[in-house]
Design brief:
The protein has 141 residues and is α+β, with helices and mostly antiparallel strands. The chain has helices at 3-11, 51-58, 96-103, and strands at 14-20, 26-36, 41-46, 61-66, 77-86, 113-126, 134-138. The protein has three helices and seven strands.
Protein backbone atom coordinates (compact mmCIF):
# COMPACT_ATOMS: atom_id res chain seq x y z
CA UNK A 1 0.00 0.00 0.00
CA UNK A 2 1.20 3.53 -0.72
CA UNK A 3 3.10 5.04 2.23
CA UNK A 4 1.14 8.33 2.07
CA UNK A 5 -2.18 6.45 2.31
CA UNK A 6 -0.90 4.25 5.15
CA UNK A 7 0.40 7.18 7.20
CA UNK A 8 -2.83 9.12 6.73
CA UNK A 9 -5.08 6.23 7.83
CA UNK A 10 -2.88 5.45 10.84
CA UNK A 11 -3.06 9.07 12.08
CA UNK A 12 -6.88 9.26 12.03
CA UNK A 13 -9.33 7.68 14.47
CA UNK A 14 -12.83 7.68 12.97
CA UNK A 15 -14.32 6.27 9.75
CA UNK A 16 -17.73 6.56 8.15
CA UNK A 17 -18.85 3.16 6.86
CA UNK A 18 -21.74 2.52 4.49
CA UNK A 19 -23.54 -0.78 4.08
CA UNK A 20 -26.71 -1.66 2.15
CA UNK A 21 -30.01 -3.12 3.32
CA UNK A 22 -32.17 -5.73 1.59
CA UNK A 23 -33.86 -3.08 -0.57
CA UNK A 24 -30.52 -1.65 -1.71
CA UNK A 25 -30.84 1.45 0.47
CA UNK A 26 -27.54 2.71 1.92
CA UNK A 27 -27.04 2.98 5.65
CA UNK A 28 -24.03 4.83 7.12
CA UNK A 29 -22.48 4.76 10.56
CA UNK A 30 -19.36 6.16 12.21
CA UNK A 31 -16.84 4.14 14.18
CA UNK A 32 -13.48 4.39 15.87
CA UNK A 33 -11.06 2.08 14.11
CA UNK A 34 -7.59 0.62 14.21
CA UNK A 35 -5.64 0.09 10.98
CA UNK A 36 -3.53 -2.99 10.30
CA UNK A 37 -1.35 -1.62 7.50
CA UNK A 38 0.47 -4.90 6.85
CA UNK A 39 -2.75 -6.70 5.90
CA UNK A 40 -4.82 -3.71 4.72
CA UNK A 41 -7.46 -4.28 7.39
CA UNK A 42 -9.60 -1.92 9.49
CA UNK A 43 -10.89 -3.16 12.84
CA UNK A 44 -13.79 -1.62 14.76
CA UNK A 45 -16.04 -2.64 17.62
CA UNK A 46 -19.82 -2.61 17.56
CA UNK A 47 -22.83 -4.08 19.28
CA UNK A 48 -24.08 -7.31 17.68
CA UNK A 49 -27.61 -5.88 17.99
CA UNK A 50 -26.81 -2.77 15.94
CA UNK A 51 -28.58 -2.24 12.63
CA UNK A 52 -25.31 -2.06 10.69
CA UNK A 53 -24.03 -5.32 12.20
CA UNK A 54 -27.15 -7.12 11.00
CA UNK A 55 -26.80 -5.57 7.54
CA UNK A 56 -23.12 -6.46 7.19
CA UNK A 57 -23.81 -10.07 8.17
CA UNK A 58 -26.23 -10.30 5.23
CA UNK A 59 -24.30 -8.21 2.67
CA UNK A 60 -20.58 -7.99 3.27
CA UNK A 61 -19.68 -5.42 0.60
CA UNK A 62 -19.23 -2.00 2.16
CA UNK A 63 -17.66 1.37 1.40
CA UNK A 64 -16.50 4.23 3.53
CA UNK A 65 -14.54 7.39 4.07
CA UNK A 66 -11.87 8.60 6.44
CA UNK A 67 -11.36 12.33 6.92
CA UNK A 68 -8.77 14.09 9.05
CA UNK A 69 -9.66 14.34 12.72
CA UNK A 70 -9.05 18.08 12.29
CA UNK A 71 -10.37 19.47 9.02
CA UNK A 72 -8.60 22.23 7.13
CA UNK A 73 -10.82 23.82 4.46
CA UNK A 74 -8.02 24.70 2.04
CA UNK A 75 -5.96 21.53 2.40
CA UNK A 76 -8.55 18.90 1.49
CA UNK A 77 -7.40 15.44 2.42
CA UNK A 78 -9.32 12.18 2.76
CA UNK A 79 -9.77 8.57 1.80
CA UNK A 80 -12.61 6.74 0.09
CA UNK A 81 -12.48 2.97 0.37
CA UNK A 82 -14.24 -0.22 -0.64
CA UNK A 83 -13.99 -3.30 1.56
CA UNK A 84 -15.47 -6.62 2.52
CA UNK A 85 -16.70 -7.19 6.08
CA UNK A 86 -15.15 -10.51 7.09
CA UNK A 87 -17.05 -12.81 9.41
CA UNK A 88 -15.57 -13.61 12.79
CA UNK A 89 -14.53 -17.12 11.65
CA UNK A 90 -12.35 -15.80 8.82
CA UNK A 91 -8.61 -16.38 9.53
CA UNK A 92 -7.84 -12.65 9.07
CA UNK A 93 -10.39 -11.82 11.79
CA UNK A 94 -8.68 -13.87 14.52
CA UNK A 95 -6.36 -11.07 15.76
CA UNK A 96 -9.02 -8.33 15.42
CA UNK A 97 -10.00 -8.06 19.08
CA UNK A 98 -6.44 -8.05 20.42
CA UNK A 99 -5.32 -5.55 17.77
CA UNK A 100 -8.27 -3.22 18.48
CA UNK A 101 -8.06 -3.39 22.27
CA UNK A 102 -4.31 -2.80 22.28
CA UNK A 103 -5.00 0.70 20.92
CA UNK A 104 -8.33 1.19 22.75
CA UNK A 105 -7.99 -0.69 26.08
CA UNK A 106 -10.99 1.09 27.62
CA UNK A 107 -13.16 -0.60 24.99
CA UNK A 108 -12.63 -3.88 26.88
CA UNK A 109 -15.22 -2.61 29.36
CA UNK A 110 -17.83 -2.27 26.62
CA UNK A 111 -19.68 -5.29 25.28
CA UNK A 112 -19.56 -5.85 21.56
CA UNK A 113 -17.87 -7.67 18.72
CA UNK A 114 -14.79 -6.60 16.82
CA UNK A 115 -15.26 -6.42 13.06
CA UNK A 116 -12.64 -6.79 10.36
CA UNK A 117 -12.91 -4.88 7.09
CA UNK A 118 -10.61 -6.13 4.34
CA UNK A 119 -9.91 -3.10 2.18
CA UNK A 120 -10.00 -3.85 -1.54
CA UNK A 121 -9.65 -0.36 -3.04
CA UNK A 122 -8.64 3.13 -1.85
CA UNK A 123 -8.73 6.53 -3.50
CA UNK A 124 -7.03 9.30 -1.54
CA UNK A 125 -7.34 12.99 -2.25
CA UNK A 126 -4.46 15.06 -0.93
CA UNK A 127 -4.31 18.76 -1.86
CA UNK A 128 -1.05 19.17 0.04
CA UNK A 129 0.53 17.32 -2.91
CA UNK A 130 -1.10 19.65 -5.48
CA UNK A 131 -4.61 20.59 -6.60
CA UNK A 132 -6.65 17.56 -7.66
CA UNK A 133 -3.95 15.06 -6.64
CA UNK A 134 -5.32 11.53 -6.22
CA UNK A 135 -3.49 8.43 -5.03
CA UNK A 136 -5.12 5.05 -5.63
CA UNK A 137 -4.47 1.55 -4.36
CA UNK A 138 -6.09 -1.75 -5.37
CA UNK A 139 -5.55 -5.00 -3.49
CA UNK A 140 -5.56 -6.99 -6.75
CA UNK A 141 -2.72 -4.98 -8.32
Amino acid sequence: MNKIITQFIQKQTCATVCCVDEQGKPYCFNCFYVFNSEEGLLYFKSSPQSHHSALMKKKSFISGTILPDKLHALLVKGVQFEAIALNEDHPLSKPASAYYHKKHPLALAMPGETWTLQISRIKMTDRTLGFGKKITWNRDE
